[in-house]
Design brief:
By secondary structure, the protein is an alpha+beta fold. 48% of the residues lie in helices and 18% in strands.
């Protein structure tokens, strides 16, 4: 079952019959965004119940905030609370075996091509979940030092080029207290390269304390600060698929506008992804209507999962659509595809450890 925010504990208690009626209304409204009436439910699904009985139960669900009656319609539509109840307590989120096999087969050709795998993940999730899919690039849980270059430019100005494991490059211009030759700068860089290779920011701070050269110590501390900043940087979405298709599923223009803005200006999505801890690999979070916190996505539903290798590298896979999106299918698809990406990363980061554990 999908992980949800803490307010899920405050959801009302329903009878089995009320849960069945709520699930049927959500199912019908997801397929066709029109109010669902008691007569339709009685004739199509609940022949053992009268329209009056169903109508009374729908009225009770409305009192509890799970359903709403738009305008003067006799039918009901799900509310955000209704969707949250469905996701938290009624959702079936397993893909059929044949669909899992199809996804496995699709990923097989890109098993050792991470870039191709991420691009394929976005396309498959968008298609299977009928939403707009976004994938962030994987990055180290903690940045690790790889190489430093100090380049003399003009006068006391020096260009610091820091390369991190994974290929990220950070550059910064330093102004020294006195001018140094390129030979002196290279000697400091070589000293730090020998001392700091493979270390994270905290380890670097500890190591550089032992250096006698004051400038080398200061640059080492600056490097640690730069690496901390890299760890705090927002997730970068590298692949996006399915936006144009999902726009046709919205019934209101405000939903269309929010979906476009969320994909094209992803700061809000970056903030939401950042709340899913790096160690939450394999967990799924469902956000419906912004959960009362993010007004910029209050007409959207989202399903998010982290992928990666624990304590080493992590990224995120996200799908968004209208609040009436097919949550069961979206959750199952996102969870399974995130697992496939994690498997790809494991071949890069974890094979040695896996062989050791299995040995």
């Amino acid at each position: 079952m999908a992980d949800t925010p803490s307010d899920a504990a405050a959801l009302p208690e329903l009878t089995e019959r009320q849960e069945k009626i709520l699930a049927l209304i959500i199912r019908e409204y997801t397929n066709r965004p029109e109010p669902v009436g008691s007569k339709f439910l009685a004739e199509t699904y609940l022949a053992n119940l009268s329209s009056a009985t169903i109508r009374n139960e729908m009225a009770r669900l409305e009192e509890l905030g799970l359903l709403a009656a738009p305008h003067t319609s006799a039918g009901r539509v799900p509310t955000e609370v209704g969707y949250r109840y469905f996701v938290r307590r009624l959702l079936s989120d397993e893909l059929p075996p044949d669909e899992k096999q199809a996804l496995d087969s699709a990923f097989a050709p890109v098993a050792h091509d991470l870039e191709g795998g991420l691009r394929l993940a976005a396309a498959l999730v968008a298609r299977n979940a009928q939403g707009a899919a976004l994938v962030t690039a994987p990055r180290a849980v903690h940045s690790q030092y790889k190489h430093l270059a100090l380049l003399s430019t003009q006068g006391r100005a020096v260009m610091m080029v820091l390369v991190l494991h994974g290929g990220e490059v950070r550059q910064q211009v330093l102004t020294l207290a006195e001018s140094l030759s390129q030979e002196q700068l290279s000697a400091i860089a070589n000293q730090l390269n020998a001392l700091c290779e493979g270390l994270d920011a905290e380890q670097i701070r500890s190591r550089v304390k032992q250096l006698e050269n004051e400038l080398a110590r200061e640059i080492g501390e600056l490097i640690a600060d730069v690496m901390d900043e890299a760890d705090r940087a927002p997730a970068r979405f590298v692949y996006r698929e399915g936006l144009s298709e999902v726009l046709t599923r919205f019934t209101e223009s405000v939903g269309v506008q929010q979906a476009i803005r969320a994909v094209e200006e992803p700061q809000i999505l970056q903030a939401i992804v950042a709340e899913l801890p790096d160690q939450a690999i394999g967990q799924v979070r469902v956000i419906i209507g912004g959960e009362g916190r993010w007004q910029d996505v209050q007409h959207l539903g989202m399903v998010i999962s982290r992928y990666g290798v624990p304590a080493q590298t992590t990224g995120a896979l996200l799908v968004l659509g209208p609040t009436r999106m097919r949550y069961g299918r979206a959750v199952a698809t996102v969870r399974y595809v995130a697992g496939l990406i994690s498997g790809m990363l494991l071949t890069v980061y974890g094979e040695g450890e896996e062989r050791h554990e299995n040995g």
